[in-house]
Amino acid sequence: MENVYDLVIIGCGPAGLSAGLYGARAKLKTLILEKSKTGGQIVTTHEIANYPGSVPNASGPSLIARMVEQCKEFGAEMAKDNIVDVDFEGDIKVLKGEKNEYKAKAVIIATGATPKKIGCPGEKELTGKGVSYCATCDADFFEDFEVFVVGGGDSALEEGMYLTKFARKVTIVHRRDAFRCAKSVEEKARANSKIEFLLDTVIEEIKGDGILESVVFKNTKTGETHEYFADEEDGTMGVFVFVGLDSQTKLFEGKVEMDEKGYIITDADMKTNVEGVFAAGDCRVKTLRQVVTATNDGAIATIVAEKYIEKKFSQEQEEVTM
Question: Where is the chain membrane-spanning (predicted)?
Fold first, then answer.
């Protein structure tokens, strides 16, 4: 099986990199595949304060860079390719990419999730022209401007606080009258003089001619709407959206078992319903989607995959030689 990897990992976020590190250290022939940007969602995070052992001012990109370096140090291979089809039926799993075809004894799916959209008129057209899903990426474009942050969880309030370093005013827009975030996060946000709150409110429409110029808000209790225009001197403003995630698992529909939201179902050992196929990180059904749980998933998936490979393929070799 010269052209067959022991382990192929689809996805290069914290879960995939953790899996790759454990695979390479175990002397498995390991390949990590990523279709676009290494690091997944964490590279858009400006500060990692809740990852055990984080150094002061640690950022998502800096943490990912260290993970990548570790994987390469132990011999994990990395490649850029977009997997367009998979065949998990045989003992050897086949992954078909836009560039190459890959074969593996075991596969770990670590494709993560992407930000959900508001779904209102004008959002798509003005994405990158005032609408953003990444404060770290785009905050500096709105220095001394006004911005709105949509969402009520930890990410919304934390990124809202980050945006106060750039914007002159940040307004948190939330559809309910209470937040879903940790109380400590809410208290910190409310103590920030540059943050205001617009509760029981959703965005109905985003308007602008090539650049964001106004936003139509709707009160969820009264049904009343009002249009808010950018300051004339500014000419524009920002809308940052943090309303949750969508699993990136469409490729695996009909291939592995999923829940109604498209998250892959696994057991505690990261096993899917298909032998030799595992899932780790934000793409699987779980209670908490954080870096610490993603790296945990990746480590478990590889340790269990290693045992699976050893048992499955050593038995087959014995049968051949008998």
Answer: none
